[in-house]
Specification:
About 25% of the residues lie in helices and about 15% in strands. It has a domain of about 140 residues: FAD/NAD(P)-binding domain (3-Layer(bba) Sandwich). The chain has about 210 residues and is an alpha/beta fold.
């Protein structure tokens, strides 16, 4: 059935995962006797409000584990905020890209554009009361592990530009890999006067035409 659905060969090793994805097997972690007191005092820092960071916050909420989610940009969606080229979208079919616990039955195409991805993620964050708890425009500047206290000492830069210290017992890095552009040394870039992408970051501008 899976081979028919995705129109390609599917190895047997993917069956357990797909059983979970389709809701036939439970992949969630559950406490046996309610949330233990220690878990409620185990604070976790999540870095990045993209697909992975948002999912981590949702799952920790279900377990009753407190967290702080920081995102350096003013909006969630991670890769889909950083990359603004025309027709930006997923190259993975939507049914593989969306959360298994929150399927989206309203995709307008098989490979969604970035705007639809943002709308989907915002809907999930709002529905689970996560959006207003994300610390946007907040960037982690330093992480230091302390063996004595067995916790992370964290320095963040807040939305108003100030530095602030935090502590956490664990850190989840969900920063992704497509948010720090590598700008090639293009000849004439330093004297280019045409249009460039203002969201390219702190590096030199990316030229849109010769």
């Amino acid at each position: 059935m899976m081979r028919v659905c995705v129109a390609e060969e599917v190895a047997q090793e993917y069956v357990p995962m797909m059983m979970e994805e389709m809701g036939f097997a439970d992949r969630n972690v559950h406490w046996r006797h309610g949330v233990p007191e220690r878990a409620s005092r185990f604070h976790i820092l999540i870095i990045g409000a993209g697909v992975s960071g948002l999912c981590a916050a949702l799952k920790l909420d279900q377990l009753g584990v407190p967290w702080t989610l920081v995102e350096k940009n003013p909006e969630l969606r991670g890769t889909w905020y950083e990359n603004t080229y025309p027709e930006a979208g997923v190259d993975t079919p939507n049914h593989f890209y969306s959360y298994s616990f929150a399927p989206n039955y309203g995709w307008t195409g098989y490979f969604s554009k970035s705007g639809e991805v943002l709308a989907y993620l915002r809907d999930i964050a709002k529905r689970h009361c996560i959006l207003d708890r994300i610390r946007f425009n907040t960037e982690v500047r330093a992480l230091t592990w302390d063996d004595l206290s067995r916790q992370w000492h964290i320095v963040i830069r807040t939305a108003d530009g100030r530095q602030q210290s935090l502590e956490a017992q664990a850190v989840i890095s969900a920063v992704g890999q497509l948010n720090r552009p590598k700008i090639p040394a293009l000849r004439g870039m330093e004297t280019f006067k045409g249009e460039s992408d203002p969201n390219i970051g702190d590096s030199a501008p990316f030229c849109s035409r010769d």
